[in-house]
């Protein structure tokens, strides 16, 4: 009896073991099937855009594949338990068509807001309608806008990169592309927040201060448990906000954000800097601009992203000379008594409401009346003579204050080529080893689409910088330089 009973027990244990093994195998196969199925059914195809091709637009197909295959884009959602399901926020009506720098400044702050709200940020493509770098008119006269993937510009957290530099961040918190949002968040599951209504609800208006806007929106977004939130009907941080000093009280929180601290230019931009590095330095390119041969899965990862925290390019002074259509804009600004915009105002003006230490020195010690009369124009639309004089002073100060010997000069500009050539001659006569400009850059097709950001990467990487305080491009360079830990005294204005 005992023996038989033991036998029976042994038999059943054996059976149970088999059964368990079977179950484990079965669930493993099911898991693989679900993963595979999910993978197949959610991976979007990279389609050929015939119209874009006919206009000669680059298709960024390697970057598109890279974006599609970001690790956070392939996790099978149905395997999450409810608690673990990631949460997202999509700012559907953030400004997009305007210039790249208006778009960028808002994307970065929205990403910071998403981060504080414990939601993954959703990043869109950039579709330039102002100053498109390629023709976009079809033969019948309608426009077919150029589409540039975010990862052609950037590699940091705002474009789906890691939120921490050791990559030990939570995958589910990383930004996702708008395409992946479409997969994850069908309309029926989306909670919609209208910007105007929400502002009424949380007691914000057009005069609210930046810190208050940020805090209240964080609270609102974090209080919603639904995974998919779409903010529409306007911008949380709109164009007027960026041109007011209401922005500045966000800086203490934003300057410590992983969004800004881990900001990096894309490998496409690193490649362009490498090809043109003779313009910036007589030395061989530094390691962070040198090709990286190990990971060749995607053509463009032969170069690494360029984090703003890299060492500056020694001996380089880079200046932003905004011209082109800017004269009329400068007149407008002068007539309205405008002050520096965006992050340019960081501690620059004695009149600033938020004197953050240490201050960025400027030439702006003028009275309001003087400022209105000639100050704005002088700083917004400087003459070639005043550019030469300012560059001279900044070079002298660099030696005196920090012992920096500046030798090469790079001019990021959209000016008339003849005017720029004349300026280069005047500057070269003042004793620079070498003076070059945006017109000397050699680009491949895809790089040409992001040429403005390539210039910004040079302005960020230079040892010393002079910019235009009224320009959002300069403002974005100011924030990336500060993010990279550059000394504030290396940031100057006309
Ligand atoms: C993208 O452009 C390249 C080069 O012009 C071409 O070889 C490739 O087939 C294009 N891919 C797509 C998906 O359009
Ligand atoms: C112009 O041509 C494009 C491409 O064939 C088409 O999609 C678009 O609707 C046309 N626009 C007009 C106004 O006919
Ligand atoms: C500037 O540098 C380029 C490339 O190194 C060189 O070809 C050119 O002659 C230099 N120009 C001057 C004025 O030194």
TrEMBL record:
<keyword id="KW-1133">Transmembrane helix</keyword>
<keyword id="KW-0812">Transmembrane</keyword>
<dbReference type="Pfam" id="PF10250">
    <property type="entry name" value="O-FucT"/>
</dbReference>
<keyword id="KW-0294">Fucose metabolism</keyword>
<keyword id="KW-0472">Membrane</keyword>
<feature type="transmembrane region" description="Helical">
    <location>
        <begin position="21"/>
        <end position="39"/>
    </location>
</feature>
<protein>
    <submittedName>
        <fullName>SH3 and PX-domain-containing 3</fullName>
    </submittedName>
</protein>
<keyword id="KW-0808">Transferase</keyword>
<dbReference type="GO" id="GO:0006004">
    <property type="term" value="P:fucose metabolic process"/>
</dbReference>
<dbReference type="InterPro" id="IPR019378">
    <property type="entry name" value="GDP-Fuc_O-FucTrfase"/>
</dbReference>
<dbReference type="GO" id="GO:0016740">
    <property type="term" value="F:transferase activity"/>
</dbReference>
<keyword id="KW-0119">Carbohydrate metabolism</keyword>
């Amino acid at each position: 009896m005992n023996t038989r009973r033991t036998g029976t027990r042994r038999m059943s244990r054996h059976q149970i073991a088999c059964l368990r093994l079977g179950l484990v195998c079965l669930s493993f196969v099911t898991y693989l099937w679900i993963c595979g199925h999910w993978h197949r059914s959610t991976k979007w195809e990279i389609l050929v855009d015939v119209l874009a091709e006919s206009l000669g637009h680059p298709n960024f197909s390697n970057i598109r594949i890279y974006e599609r295959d970001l690790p956070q884009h392939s996790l099978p959602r149905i395997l999450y338990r409810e608690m673990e399901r990631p949460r997202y926020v999509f700012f559907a009506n953030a400004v997009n068509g305007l210039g790249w720098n208006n778009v960028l400044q808002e994307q970065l702050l929205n990403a910071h807001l998403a981060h504080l709200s414990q939601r993954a940020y959703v990043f869109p493509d950039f579709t330039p309608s102002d100053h498109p770098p390629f023709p976009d008119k079809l033969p019948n006269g309608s426009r077919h806008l150029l589409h540039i993937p975010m990862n052609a510009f950037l590699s940091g957290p705002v474009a789906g990169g890691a939120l921490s530099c050791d990559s030990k961040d939570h995958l589910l918190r990383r930004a996702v592309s708008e395409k992946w949002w479409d997969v994850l968040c069908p309309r029926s599951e989306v909670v919609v927040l209208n910007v105007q209504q929400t502002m009424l609800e949380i007691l914000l208006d057009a005069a609210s201060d930046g810190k208050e806007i940020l805090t209240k929106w964080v609270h609102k977004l974090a209080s919603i448990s639904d995974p998919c939130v779409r903010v529409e009907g306007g911008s949380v941080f709109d164009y007027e906000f960026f041109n007011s000093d209401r922005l500045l009280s966000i800086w203490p929180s934003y300057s410590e954000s992983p969004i800004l601290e881990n900001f990096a230019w894309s490998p496409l931009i690193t490649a362009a800097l490498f090809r043109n590095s003779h313009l910036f330095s007589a030395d061989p390119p530094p390691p962070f601009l040198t090709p990286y041969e190990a990971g060749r899965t995607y053509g463009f990862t032969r170069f690494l992203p360029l984090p703003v925290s890299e060492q500056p390019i020694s001996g380089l002074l880079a200046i932003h000379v905004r011209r082109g259509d800017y004269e009329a804009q400068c007149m407008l600004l002068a007539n309205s008594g405008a002050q520096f915009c965006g992050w340019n105002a960081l501690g620059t003006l004695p009149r600033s409401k938020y004197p953050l230490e240490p201050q960025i020195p400027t030439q702006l010690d003028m009275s309001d009346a003087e400022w209105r009369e000639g100050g704005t124009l002088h700083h917004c639309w400087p003459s070639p003579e005043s550019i030469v004089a300012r560059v001279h002073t900044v070079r002298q100060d660099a030696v005196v204050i920090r012992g920096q010997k500046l030798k090469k000069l790079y001019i990021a500009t959209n000016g008339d080529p003849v005017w720029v050539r004349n300026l280069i001659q005047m500057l070269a006569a003042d004793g620079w080893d070498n003076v070059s400009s945006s017109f000397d850059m050699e680009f491949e097709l895809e790089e040409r689409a992001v040429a403005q950001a390539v210039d910004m990467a040079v302005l960020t990487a230079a040892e010393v910088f002079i910019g235009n305080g009224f320009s959002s491009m300069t403002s974005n360079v100011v924030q990336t330089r500060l993010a990279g830990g550059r000394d504030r005294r290396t940031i100057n204005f006309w």
